[in-house]
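Practice problem 4.
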C-alpha cells in the first residue's frame, strides 16, 4: 500500500524547486511500484542488485532505475544495460568497471560519487581529498573513460535528531558539490546532481541545496 496523498504533496513541492524525487522501493513488492507508476512516478531506487534486476524485468521499460546501495565491482555487469544512475561510487576501481561495462553495452552510464558526511563509521564514501584524486585521474584518462559520466555527488547524513548537525553535514556536501562544479567539473553541465535527503531529513537537505532526494518509508510505509 502506498501513500498517494504524500506522493502528490511531494511532487508539487519538488516541481517548484526543481528537485527530482527518487521513490526508494527496496523490499517493497512490484504491485506498490506499479501503483506509484500509474500515478506518474518514473524514478525508482533500489539497493540490492538481484532485487533491482528482478524488478526491472517485471516492470514497465520506461522506469528510470537508480542504484542507491553500495555496489561491488563484480556486480556492475548485471545492471549495466539498463541502470539510469548509480549513486554510490566510492572508488576509481568501481568507476573503471562501470566504464568497461558501459562500453560493452555501447552506452554511457551516469554515476555520482558518494561523499562520507556522517559520523557513523559503517557508512561508505569518500572525503573531499579522495574525491579530488578520483576527479583528477578521471580527467587525465578522459579518452579511455568515455562510457562513464560523473554527474554529481551523493551523501547520507548522520541518523540523529540533532537538526543543526544534519544541516551542517548537508552544507558540507553541497558546498563541495558547488566547488567541484566551479573547478574540476567546470564546463561540464551534466555535473548537476546533488543527491541528499531521505524521509527523515529531506526538508533540511532541500534547504541546503539538494537537487535529488531518495524517499522510501514516507511513500511506501515502514520496511519490515
Ligand atoms: C533506504 C534508503 C533511502 C530511503 O530511506 P527512507 O528513510 O525510507 O526514506 C535513501 N537512500 C539510501 C541510500 C537508502 O539506502
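Answer key:
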Amino acid at each position: 500500500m502506498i501513500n498517494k496523498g504524500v506522493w502528490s504533496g511531494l511532487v508539487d513541492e519538488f516541481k517548484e524547486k526543481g528537485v527530482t524525487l527518487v521513490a526508494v522501493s527496496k523490499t517493497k513488492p512490484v504491485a506498490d511500484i506499479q501503483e506509484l507508476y500509474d500515478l506518474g512516478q518514473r524514478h525508482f531506487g533500489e539497493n540490492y542488485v538481484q532485487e533491482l534486476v528482478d524488478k526491472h524485468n517485471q516492470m514497465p521499460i520506461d522506469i528510470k532505475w537508480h542504484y542507491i546501495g553500495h555496489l561491488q565491482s563484480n556486480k556492475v555487469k548485471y545492471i549495466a544495460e539498463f541502470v539510469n544512475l548509480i549513486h554510490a561510487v566510492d572508488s576509481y576501481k568501481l568507476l573503471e568497471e562501470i566504464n568497461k561495462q558501459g562500453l560493452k553495452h555501447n552506452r554511457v552510464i551516469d554515476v555520482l560519487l558518494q561523499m562520507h558526511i556522517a559520523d557513523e563509521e559503517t557508512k561508505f564514501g569518500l572525503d573531499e581529498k579522495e574525491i579530488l584524486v578520483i576527479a583528477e585521474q578521471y580527467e587525465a584518462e578522459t579518452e579511455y573513460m568515455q562510457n562513464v559520466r560523473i554527474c554529481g555527488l551523493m551523501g547520507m547524513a548522520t541518523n540523529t535528531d540533532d537538526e543543526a548537525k544534519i544541516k551542517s553535514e548537508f552544507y558540507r556536501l553541497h558546498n563541495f558539490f558547488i566547488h567541484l562544479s566551479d573547478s574540476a567539473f567546470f564546463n561540464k553541465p551534466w555535473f548537476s546532481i546533488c543527491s541528499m535527503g531521505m524521509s527523515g531529513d529531506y526538508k533540511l537537505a532541500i534547504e541546503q541545496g539538494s537537487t535529488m532526494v531518495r524517499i522510501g518509508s514516507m511513500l511506501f510505509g515502514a520496511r519490515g
